[in-house]
Amino acid sequence: MIFQEPPLDHPVEEKIQWARHYYQLFKDFLLRDEAVHALLNQFEKAARLSREAMEAAGIMDECRVCEEDEGGSCCGAGLENKYSAVLLLTNLLLGRQLPEKRFDPKGCFFLGRTGCSLLARHVICVNYLCKKIIDGIPSNVIADLREKEGTELQILFRIHERIKDQLRAIDEKTKRTIEAVARFYDHKMVGHLGPLGFRRSTDLTRLVECLCHLIHQGFLLPGKSLFLDMGCGDGRVNVLLSYLVQSSIGIELDEWTLDEYIPLKKELDDLLQGRSLLIPPDNIHLFHGDSLDKGLQETILKKTGLGFHDFHLFYTYLTMHEEFAALIAQKARKGAVFMVYGLDKIIPRFKGLTLLTPDKPLAGVIALYQKP
Ligand code: SF4
Ligand code: SF4
């Protein structure tokens, strides 16, 4: 899988970030799915019926008094850890907002000023009633409530499974799209023959091989990593990476090379749409200028919110690699990875960076370095 859901034991902030990111990327795809659409509608109705049954039984009033006057609550800190990222994505698809930060230091992350911010809730949150409540309500009323909650939870389980199926389908589609993007640009390589020998394009098919390695090694976190191509040419590497990273930023010195980005991308978009593949997400930002120029780095920070220190992955096609390596060693974050394309048997070493591929370059062409 490219798009791995964060494990359950990861921090809630990471799961929220994942849910928001995948909501942005795939909400149209998911909401257009008839099964997801129908199940979400059924769920809203079922959740409303459960809630009405709780209100009719007087449980909501009891809990309100317990929370406001008696200082009791079932929503303690730590319960948010029960929530999977897909369950949070479900809440976004239901139109709920996820909180930015914890409202009550002793409370669950999702507990807001007016109660729980979620509609699709974990079985523990749906089912739990304390002894005081259970003892005070007739058993037939509790049984009726349990039945309604059971329906709510069954539908939620089906939504969860359907979304996971759809994400697997997106994963497959993304892989097919990435291959198509690589083939499209590889048919339009520049510089290997003819008068533009000084300007060379990355072989994207070979780059794809390396990206799989980077994902498996944890250097590229799909949907999370921030990518900077220093010398992006017509933006082809940025387009390829846009499917895999949160932001794909490129800098190119030659304005006329950069001018090729728009017409090429337009041609690519038409081709992808014609084949029902995914068009590149709206996370590509290309800049004209010198990658070493501090002023340009400031401009990028202003326009994208990303400073040099924020990027996780840097890339260059064997130009200025020594200067870029020195800049990365000096200014990049710890753990940042520098990919240098175009190497063969002789692999240079850079002061301040650890060579991760000492024996041979990945796919015979890319060396990886890391800032320790
Ligand atoms: S279920 Fe019981 S403990 Fe929890 S809020 Fe309601 S009354 Fe209080
Ligand atoms: S009901 Fe909502 S606020 Fe309470 S523990 Fe569950 S998720 Fe948290």
Describe the protein's architecture and organization.
The chain has 372 residues and is an alpha/beta fold. The chain has two domains: 12-167, no CATH class; 188-370, Rossmann fold (3-Layer(aba) Sandwich), CATH 3.40.50.150. 49% of the residues lie in helices and 10% in strands. The protein is built from 13 helices and nine strands. The strands form two sheets. Strands 5-4-3-6-7-9-8 form a seven-stranded mixed β-sheet, sandwiched between helices. Strands 1-2 form a two-stranded antiparallel ribbon. Strand 1 (111-112) and strand 2 (115-116) form a beta hairpin. The chain starts with 11 loop residues before the first helix and ends with a strand. Mean pLDDT is 92; it is low at 193-197. The structure holds iron/sulfur cluster (SF4) (2 copies). The site of one iron/sulfur cluster (SF4) has 11 residues, from helix 3 and helix 6.
List the helices and strands and how they pair.
Elements: H1 12-32, H2 34-56, H3 59-68, H4 85-93, E1 111-112, E2 115-116, H5 123-127, H6 131-136, H7 139-186, H8 204-216, E3 226-230, H9 236-242, E4 247-252, H10 255-258, H11 261-274, E5 284-288, H12 294-304, E6 313-317, H13 321-331, E7 337-341, E8 354-355, E9 366-370
Parallel strand pairs: 3-4, 3-6, 4-5, 6-7
Antiparallel strand pairs: 1-2, 7-9, 8-9
Helix pairs in contact: 1-4, 2-7
What's the count of strands? 9
Which CATH class of the largest domain applies here? Alpha Beta
What strand order characterises the main sheet?
5-4-3-6-7-9-8
Oligomeric state of the chains?
single chain
- Percent strand equals 5-15%
Attached small molecules? iron/sulfur cluster
**Rg for CA atoms:** 25 Å
Number of helical regions? 13
Report the average pLDDT across residues. Answer: 92
Indicate the percent of residues in helices: 40-55%
CATH topology of the largest domain: Rossmann fold
